[in-house]
Write a structure and sequence with these properties.
The chain is mainly α. It has one domain: Four Helix Bundle (Hemerythrin (Met), subunit A) (Up-down Bundle). It is about 70% helix and about 0% strand. It contains 10 helices and no strands. Helix 1 packs across helix 3, helix 3 packs antiparallel against helix 8 and helix 5 packs across helix 6. It is globular and about 45 Å long. The two termini are about 35 Å apart.
Length: about 260
């Protein structure tokens, strides 16, 4: 199943793991494995990728970053095929994403002996890139009745879905809000008119998907595999320049 109706889908370069994620989801559909279990597994896989970096097994590190992206998609797919949407899973997934991003950046910083300032800039850049992609994507999903567990500029705790506890949603929302609020607000105020202009061409969304988390993990995997570990942090700092470029392009398209 997709997060968007068929007539509004676009080529998502960040979503290369969707097909294997669906295979995994359908294989687990009639088992006791839950989407939360898959989320926990992608957390372990992400940490394993860092472990391979420290042991100089960069091909394996890259492979596990890609596997992490596949499992990152598989938890949501499993929730859809089991028809068990939850804010618990949605927030836990996002919390794991940002924490793993931090661990990956810190690991590369330590291994390459880069400054903590460079690591911080790279981390902030990666989060802003991903936030912009998610911002436009969520606008589309909300407008066209796609998946609706994500919301634009989340300010209030949502009401728990049947089958999950409100106290768990409250706790995870507060953690999510603490970790993401600054990035969400930065992008929202940089392009607050975007929700009023939901007509984003498919080619535009495909270009924006190059900033998505899956694309970021793939780029890291490729750089690790070809011996460019020392350039990962500077690359993602420079890659952040695409954020204002895409915002200006979106405004031009919807002028």
């Amino acid at each position: 199943m997709s997060k968007l109706p068929p007539n509004h889908r676009f080529l998502d370069f960040s979503d290369y793991g969707r097909t294997p994620a669906r295979w995994i989801a359908h294989a687990l559909k009639d088992t006791l494995v839950t989407p939360i279990h898959v989320t926990l597994l992608f957390g372990v896989v992400g940490l394993a990728a860092c472990g391979f970096m420290f042991s100089n097994h960069y091909y394996l590190a890259g492979l596990f970053l890609i596997l992490k992206s596949i499992l990152d998609a598989a938890d949501g797919e499993l929730a859809r095929v089991k028809k068990t949407p939850s804010y618990t899973g949605r927030y836990l997934d996002s919390i794991f994403d940002i924490l793993l991003n931090a661990v990956i950046i810190v690991s590369i910083c330590y291994i390459t002996k880069s400054s903590i300032f460079i690591a911080l800039l790279a981390f902030l850049g990666i989060q802003l890139q991903g936030t912009l992609y998610n911002y436009y994507y969520v606008i589309l999903r909300n407008e066209f009745d796609g998946d609706n567990t994500s919301r634009i500029n989340e300010k209030n705790v949502p009401i728990a879905f049947p089958g999950e506890k409100q106290k768990h949603v409250n706790l995870l929302y507060n953690i999510f809000n603490l970790l993401y609020r600054g990035f969400d607000q930065t992008i929202y105020y940089a392009d607050r008119q975007a929700p009023k202009n939901q007509k984003f061409p498919n080619w535009f969304m495909s270009c924006i998907s190059l900033l998505g988390l899956g694309s970021q993990m793939l780029l890291m995997a490729v750089m690790l595999s070809v011996g460019l570990l020392n350039y990962v942090l500077p690359f993602f700092i420079g890659y952040t320049a695409l954020v204002p470029v895409f915002i200006l392009l979106r405004r031009y398209i919807n002028r």
